[in-house]
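On to our target:
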Amino acid sequence: MIVSMTGFGRSTAEKDKYSVTVEIKAVNHRFLEFNIRMPRQLFVIEDRIKKKISEQVTRGRIEVFVTLEGSGNFSSKVNVDWQLLDEYVQSIKAIQDKYQLENPISLQDILLREDFISFDEDHAGNAELETLVLDAIDEAAKQLKSMRVIEGNVLASDIHNQLNIFSKRVVSLREYAPSVVQLYTDRLRRRMEEFANGQIDEARLVNEIAIFADKADINEELTRLHSHIDQFQKIMKLDEPVGRKMDFLLQEMNREVNTIGSKANDSNIAREVVEMKSLLEKMKEQVQNIE
């Protein structure tokens, strides 16, 4: 099943004094990466949030926004490390006395030092809120997955059409390829007749044709292309993330097409190669957004 890496999901959950709104946005990325923005008191369940979303997605850059309304049972506590603060102040005064410095210690200097003052959130009794948040995350993640599946179907349809056109061009090349040697033979024979006044060295002619036929043979490349196309079609039907596999096969197909272009000394094949590379590039752009 083809699933896009872009999508959006939104969910709101309310209970008692709490109201939770969750928005999840996803874009394409090589791996699964999270960027979660939420109130500090919810940091304790960040790993559980990631795990919940990971049940629905396996690749992409995931941005999560959690908005919480309602005070509930939250309370904050300010902690001052008085012993460390006393030592700090005494040390500053000692330095001032020793070096005759007159700059006083300001309250701002102390407040800017996290060593002395810290804030703790009281999380007691917040199990109900955490459950509410995780439920909202789950619903938003499911909406995200649904949108990614819908967009994935659109991508699959477009890739399927492009692949069909590409496959037809491969078949066309296989049918046309044998004529390249014959065209070269006729052209070479005419040139030899022009320069040799009608007297042709048949042995040399056959040797030249054999060398050209060996260099211009693209049957192996065409066979591998057929194999890659079959694998590509099978992968598209798998019920698992397939983006990387599809990207790898497109690279292999592009390599085979480049080899065909370098081997075939024929303008018609050269034109086909250009069109085939264009089709592969279009498919690659779509595959870059597939999970």
About this structure: The radius of gyration is 34 Å. The CA atoms of residues 160 and 228 lie 14 Å apart. Strands lie at 7-15, 18-27, 32-37, 60-69, 75-80, 117-122.
